[in-house]
Write a structure and sequence with these properties.
With 306 residues, the chain is an alpha+beta fold. The chain is built from 9 helices and 8 strands. Pfam families: DDE_Tnp_ISL3.
Length: 306
């Protein structure tokens, strides 16, 4: 298939021209071949604008915005150049594409926009990517486009940890209590993220102490001997009372009252998880039964025969 003028604006990458477009209707894919504009004799260094010498080339194939039902792939030859003036080494690709990316930025932005209106796992119904790739691209675009959180004038903070997936995986969220703005979001915190979180919590001493004690309390579930667990609980309750925070002191008293039940976990390792899952299943079944009854009632009222 020959290129037509109407297709050129769709793939108008400065410094690159369309060589040809092939369409494979069996696999529903379009292949757009691009080449460097012959009028550009030498690539210039982005640091000092000096012409660069070519070191090596590599054929690339990246995914672009779909064209109707067709997945669009851009094929071109990227090259790595070196500046003799400042020794800068860089890879020259089509605009809107990082050196090692497998998709254009405009496709990633489109996927991120879809994620605002549907779960990431539903995106593959419209774009030929996996749900995990949709989540990764959405996160990448949000980090790139969203402004840095405002930390001035913070009066109070809200912090929570949400369990995600299986195992001990947690997502830590910190919000501005007044505006609801997300100030921090971290999954299975790295040392760098922990440092950033501590800096943020230092703005609110009470919340900082509460977060430290909350993280410390997780150790209770690691004990296998009741005596050791009891000593740890006594120490934790003492620390909670020393903070002088009324909510923590009330919570510590509640733990002390529930001491026997908490310490029994050392021997039996039984939680309410199975009961909770059973209740959720029962609620889901009840919801389906109610929806079915409503549907039957509507049909009967309309006079439709079953």
């Amino acid at each position: 298939m020959c290129t037509t003028p109407s297709l050129r604006p769709m793939f108008a990458f400065p410094g690159w021209v369309i060589e040809q477009i092939d369409i494979d209707w069996e696999v529903k894919q379009a292949f757009v071949y691009l080449r460097r504009d012959g009028r550009i004799q030498h690539e210039k260094c982005s640091q000092c604008e000096t012409p660069m010498g070519q070191m090596k080339t590599k054929d690339r194939c990246v995914q672009d915005l779909p064209l109707g039902v067709l997945q669009v792939n851009l094929l071109f030859t990227a090259f790595q150049g070196r500046c003799s003036h400042c020794n800068n080494i860089e890879t020259v690709t089509i605009p809107g594409l990082t050196p090692k990316a497998q998709a254009t930025d405009r496709l990633k932005r489109h996927v991120s926009h879809l994620c605002r209106y549907m779960p990431c796992d539903k995106v593959p119904e419209f774009i030929t990517i996996s749900g995990g790739t949709a989540r990764r691209w959405d996160k990448e675009m949000l980090l790139r486009m969203l402004p840095a959180p405002k930390r001035d004038g913070i009066r109070a903070l809200l912090i929570d940890e949400k369990s995600i997936g299986k195992g001990h995986q947690y997502l830590t969220v910190v919000l501005n209590a007044d505006s609801g703005e997300t100030l921090f979001l971290g999954e299975n915190l790295t040392p760098k993220q922990e440092s950033s979180l501590k800096e943020l919590l230092s703005m609110n001493e009470d919340l900082n102490q509460a977060y430290i004690l909350k993280d410390m309390l997780k150790q209770l579930w690691t004990y296998t001997y009741k005596a050791c667990a009891s000593k740890f609980l006594d120490r934790w309750i003492e620390l909670a009372k020393e903070t002088g925070i009324a909510e923590l002191k009330r919570f510590a008293k509640g733990l002390d009252r529930a001491r026997e039940g908490l310490l029994s976990y050392c021997h039996h390792r039984i939680t309410a998880r199975r009961l909770k899952l059973s209740m959720e299943s029962s609620n889901a079944l009840s919801t389906k039964l109610v929806a079915t009854m409503i549907l039957i009632t509507s049909i009967l009222k309309s006079g439709t025969r079953l």
